[in-house]
UniProtKB/TrEMBL annotation:
This is Cation-transporting ATPase. GO terms for molecular function: ATP binding; ATP hydrolysis activity; copper ion binding; P-type divalent copper transporter activity. GO terms for cellular component: plasma membrane. Keywords: ATP-binding, Cell membrane, Membrane, Metal-binding, Nucleotide-binding, Translocase, Transmembrane, Transmembrane helix. It comes from Amycolatopsis azurea DSM 43854.
Length: 744
């Protein structure tokens, strides 16, 4: 007999990686980590984070040392200095200021004196070199430092291109100023130049450094802004809580709050944890957590969510979830994990960047060789090679996908759309059919009295009074609906004596000295009490009706149903406006399902489906060529959510549904479904636009540079601006859904 060895335990480590300057860097770190046995790593350049799955026995120090040997630094997430990112931005700003202050006079001086010989003065070349030295060797130091690190590890990155371009420009200009400036030259787009005009490449060295530092500075700020959308979720969490113990209020750190503790929330304060209102009446602003714009009225027994804000009344809340188990903490954790995962299009970009830099270096060398072998002046071949090095830096390519994903995931979290990963965004874009589970998704999932029809001699209030008094002794869902309706209409309910539950039939009891019977038609028939003729019609559309009798006489009946959410019809209309097909999926009978479908405007109904068959229905739709999104909330929806191309679970649903889904819908408003699809569409269109620009830019610009049609200074400006354009384009997602609900 062969006994298979148990699988080794695997854990997940998150590292903060410093020193990466481009997508090629992240690809190198990822390859380095993946060479370790049993390790699977995903490194995200935009978030500067590595998510690593490692065997339980492998220590974190091994991973950190491996990253260090690849030329970068790493720390376990949570251990790093929180000011690191700001320090990097400040350092880039200082270098940028120095570069700009020197590059502007250097540019004016070198260009003017190079082109107008009569304005030259003795030592003008030396003055230009002195102005350029701080820019080339201090402001551009981050590029040179990264290049040296790469050389030590026999690799290259986009910084290699920049460093070589800047140093080559400076070296050529220095040589020209002291040894090779006796012959006139020729500039494409300008014409013949006087001897010594090659000093212009000092301006190129300083200008390129300034442009690239500006691009990297604003890129770093923008990336911090995009990540800040998710960091804002952390900021919502309360730091302290007013705990009620032994009748006294005491302020303690949030970490000391335990499940079951009572805590006090005063007007204007954030609710510290998820819980149930123990006492008090107030309105709660939940917009920061769920995206619902209308404050919710809460009273004793109502559920409240941590990080929502108490607006007016004093509340005493019993904690039901604290720490990492709160809805806010789970939202934040899922959103952070989504940042670390890569879309398939980003994996393609990583593979391209890994080979891009060596290819560009080869193209630059080939360009210089071809120009020299063709007999062209050395300065023209050198200018073309430098332009190739500078224009080819694919920073925009590396930022095209992750910045848009960060902004999209972050904005989704603010709108109550919790996207678990970029693959969910890609799936959303291709969906053409949306399957809606009925109970708990389209409907509230709670039984509600929708009609009270009294018989002759009784009023609606009397029917509710007698029925509510008897049903107060029952725990059935229908009984709870009756009691809720009675208490909403009446100031108080009388007591019941001799209560008795009648399983499968109803209940009985004595109320104010009168015998009251509440139940279905079978119960009344068995007791010889006549059933009203219109009673059967009340149940034809899927509603449940119960009869009420007082002293053996029918007092009336109540109609109870699981009501449709107010937002359901508008949500379905929005889905149809997006060109999507909708399907209602339910275990109810055809008549009940059709009534709900007609009410919300869904043309396709799949009724009588057993819980185990829901996944089969979804699979049949997929086999038929549909790209299916499943929206559900219950335990029985889990398999269907996992089977669908895109699973969307309501946040109030079961844990199994939430784990099976790709997107968690935090808002109770069902219009969050079309909003999620719009957001996915907008995000992916921005990603495609970014990639089209980045690829097109490099494909078009490198041949122009190799042919000598691009001045190196113009090449540097264009490359830097392309990165800023990509990041700025991605950050447009921050405004998604602010102005209107029109399709993106």
């Amino acid at each position: 007999m062969t006994i298979s060895a148990p699988e080794a335990a695997v854990r997940t480590v998150e590292l903060t990686v410093s020193g990466m300057t481009c997508a090629a860097c992240s690809a190198r770190v990822e390859r380095t980590l993946n060479k370790l046995d049993g390790v699977r790593a995903s490194v995200n350049y935009a978030t500067e984070r590595a998510t690593v799955q490692v065997p339980e026995a492998l220590s974190d120090d091994v991973l950190i040392e491996r990253v260090r040997k690849s030329g970068y630094t790493a720390e376990v997430r949570g251990d790093e200095d929180p000011d690191t990112g700001f320090a990097r931005v400040r350092d880039l700003r200082r270098r940028l200021v120095v570069a700009a202050l020197l590059a502007i006079p250097l540019g004016n001086l070198s260009i003017t004196l190079a082109l107008v010989p009569r304005l030259r003065f003795p030592g003008w070349e030396l003055l230009c070199l002195v102005l350029a030295v701080p820019v080339v060797f201090w402001s551009a130091l981050p590029f040179h430092r990264a290049t040296l690190r790469n050389l030590r590890h026999r690799s290259s990155s986009m910084d290699t291109l920049v460093s070589l371009g800047v140093l080559s420009s400076f070296a050529w200009s220095a040589w020209s100023a002291f040894a090779g400036g006796t012959e006139p030259g020729y500039w494409i787009g300008f014409g013949p130049t006087a001897a010594g005009a090659d000093a212009i490449y000092l301006d190129v060295a300083a200008g390129v450094t300034t442009f690239l530092l500006a691009g990297r500075y604003f890129e770093s700020r923008s990336r911090r802004s995009a990540a800040g959308l998710l960091a804002a979720l952390d900021a919502l969490a309360a730091k302290d809580v007013r705990v009620l113990r032994d009748g006294a209020e005491r302020m303690v750190p949030i970490g000391e709050l335990a499940v079951g503790d009572l805590f006090v929330v005063k007007p204007g304060e954030s609710i510290a944890a998820d819980g149930i209102v123990d006492s008090g009446l107030s309105t709660v602003d939940v917009s920061a957590v769920t995206g619902e714009p209308v404050p919710a009225e809460v009273a004793e027994g109502d559920r409240v969510v941590g990080a929502s804000v108490n607006r007016d009344g004093r509340l005493v809340v019993r904690a039901t979830a604290v720490g990492a188990h709160t809805q806010l903490a789970q939202m934040t954790a899922l959103a952070e994990r989504a940042q670390a995962r890569k879309a398939s299009v980003q994996r393609l970009v990583d593979r391209i960047c890994a080979v891009f830099v060596p290819v560009v270096l080869g193209v630059a060398v080939l360009t210089l060789a071809v120009w020299l072998l063709s007999g062209a002046p050395a300065r023209e071949g050198f200018a073309a090679a430098v332009a190739v090095l500078i224009i080819a830096c694919p920073c925009a390519l590396g930022l095209a996908t992750p910045t848009a994903l960060m902004a999209g995931v972050g904005r989704g979290a603010q709108l109550g759309i919790l996207i678990k990963g970029p693959d969910a965004l890609e799936a959303s874009r291709t969906v053409d059919t949306v399957v809606l589970d009925k109970t708990g998704t389209v409907t509230t999932g709670k039984m509600t009295v929708t009609a009270c029809l009294p018989a002759d001699g009784f009023t609606a209030g009397e029917v509710l009074r007698y029925a509510g008094a008897v049903e107060a002794g029952s725990e059935h869902a229908i009984a709870a609906a009756v009691v809720t309706a009675a208490r909403a209409e009446l100031p108080d309910l009388p007591g019941v004596e001799g209560f008795g539950a009648l399983p499968g039939l109803g209940a009985k009891g004595e109320v104010e000295g009168r015998e009251v019977l509440v139940g279905n038609a079978r119960l009344f028939t068995d007791r010889g009490i006549g059933v009203p003729e219109d009673f059967a019609a009340a149940e034809r559309d899927g509603a449940t009706a119960i009869l009420v009798a007082v002293d053996g006489r029918v007092a009336g009946y109540l109609v109870i149903r699981d009501v449709v959410k107010p937002s359901a019809r508008a949500a379905v209309a929005d889905l149809h406006a997006l060109g999507l097909r909708t399907v209602l999926l339910t275990g109810d009978n055809e008549a009940a399902a059709r009534a709900i479908a007609d009410e919300i405007g869904v043309p396709d109904v799949r009724a009588g489906v057993l819980p185990a068959e829901k996944a089969q229905v979804v699979e049949e739709l997929r086999v038929g060529g549909a790209r299916v999104a499943m929206v559900g909330d219950g335990i029985n929806d889990g398999p269907a959510l996992a089977t669908a191309d895109l699973g969307m679970a309501m946040a109030q649903g079961s844990d199994i549904a939430l784990r099976s889904a790709d997107i968690v819908l935090v808002r109770e408003d069902l219009r969050v479904v079309p909003d999620a699809i719009r957001l996915a569409d907008r995000t992916l269109r921005i990603i495609r636009g970014n990639l089209a620009w980045a690829f097109g830019y490099n494909v078009a610009a490198i041949p122009l540079a190799a042919l000598g049609l691009l001045n190196p200074l113009i090449a540097g400006a264009a490359m830097s601006l392309s990165s800023v354009l990509v990041v700025s384009n991605s950050l447009r997602l921050k405004d998604f859904g602010r102005s209107d609900r029109r399709p993106a």
